[in-house]
Design goal:
The complex is a heterodimer of chains A (about 120) and B (about 110). Chain A is mostly beta strands and about 120 residues long. Chain A has no helices and eleven strands. Chain A is globular. With about 110 residues, chain B is an all-beta fold. In chain B, strands 2, 5, 6, 10, 11 and 12 form a six-stranded mixed beta sheet that branches. In chain B, a hairpin with a 4-residue loop joins strand 8 and strand 9. Classes of the chains: A mainly beta (about 120), B mainly beta (about 110). At the A-B interface, strand 4, strand 5, strand 9 and strand 10 of A face strand 5, strand 6 and strand 11 of B.
Chain lengths: ~120, ~110
């Protein structure tokens, strides 16, 4: 019974490069959320997606960041032209989409991005 | 806007003693409240949630939490702490509206001393 899977677990990029973070939700879950955790801080919401749709991206920086959850395949969080301030742990979570909004979210192990 | 406060960055307790990790919240409408635990270099693991009903919620690993509407609190408790409970604990809230994202507190590092 696989949980949320994220890869890579660790990613090192130089300033100006692109970072692609992948998330495969729990089987049967149709809702995906991305959160960012800066050092010594709690998790901050970035974006909420359902299959092929961005539902809420109110926590996503307006530039350089994008997310998708295609019909087939994992959800992707893409960061273009990374800067040192993007260094953080990025967590993906998934939940059921049964019409209620109080289902718990299941979290992946995170991708730790380091920008040199 | 919704928010969560965890007033203690660090809680230390001796093994076998009861533990409490504090959480207060602010949200429009009825709150949905969650506790998660994070071990080093790992993702968050779900412990328990309050949606409605009994104010005392029981969760995984012997943890429980008490919802107090008048004090807008949702403190995490365990009657007898274990060294293996040492971890980072996060309280989270979601309002009963259409928004589904969780708002997290800043976390409380629990250390259980042998």
């Amino acid at each position: 019974n696989a949980g949320v899977m994220q890869n890579p677990r660790h990613l090192v990029r130089r300033r100006g490069q692109e970072a692609r973070l992948r998330c495969s939700p729990v089987k049967g879950h149709s809702h995906v959320y991305w959160y960012r955790q800066l050092p010594e801080e709690g998790l901050k919401f970035m974006v909420y997606l359902q299959k092929e749709n961005i539902i809420d991206e109110s926590g996503m920086p307006k530039e350089r960041f994008s997310a998708e959850f295609p019909k087939e395949g994992p959800s992707i969080l893409r960061i273009q032209q990374v800067v040192r301030g993007d260094s953080a742990a990025y967590f993906c979570a998934s939940s059921h989409g049964t019409g209620t909004n109080h289902n718990e979210q299941f979290f992946g192990p995170g991708t730790r991005l380091t920008v040199l | 806007a919704q928010s969560v406060a965890q007033p203690e960055d660090q809680v230390n307790v001796a093994e076998g003693n009861p533990l409490t990790v504090k959480c207060t919240y602010s949200v429009s409408g009825n709150p949905y409240l969650f506790w998660y635990v994070q071990y080093p270099n790992r993702g968050l693991q779900f412990l328990l949630k309050y949606i409605t009903g009994d104010n005392l919620v029981k969760g995984s690993y012997g943890f429980e939490a008490e919802f107090n509407k008048s004090q807008t609190s949702f403190h995490l408790k365990k009657p007898s702490a274990l060294v293996s409970d040492s971890a980072l604990y996060f309280c989270a809230v979601r309002g009963s509206g259409s928004a589904r994202q969780l708002t997290f507190g800043s976390g409380t590092q629990l250390t259980v001393l042998p």
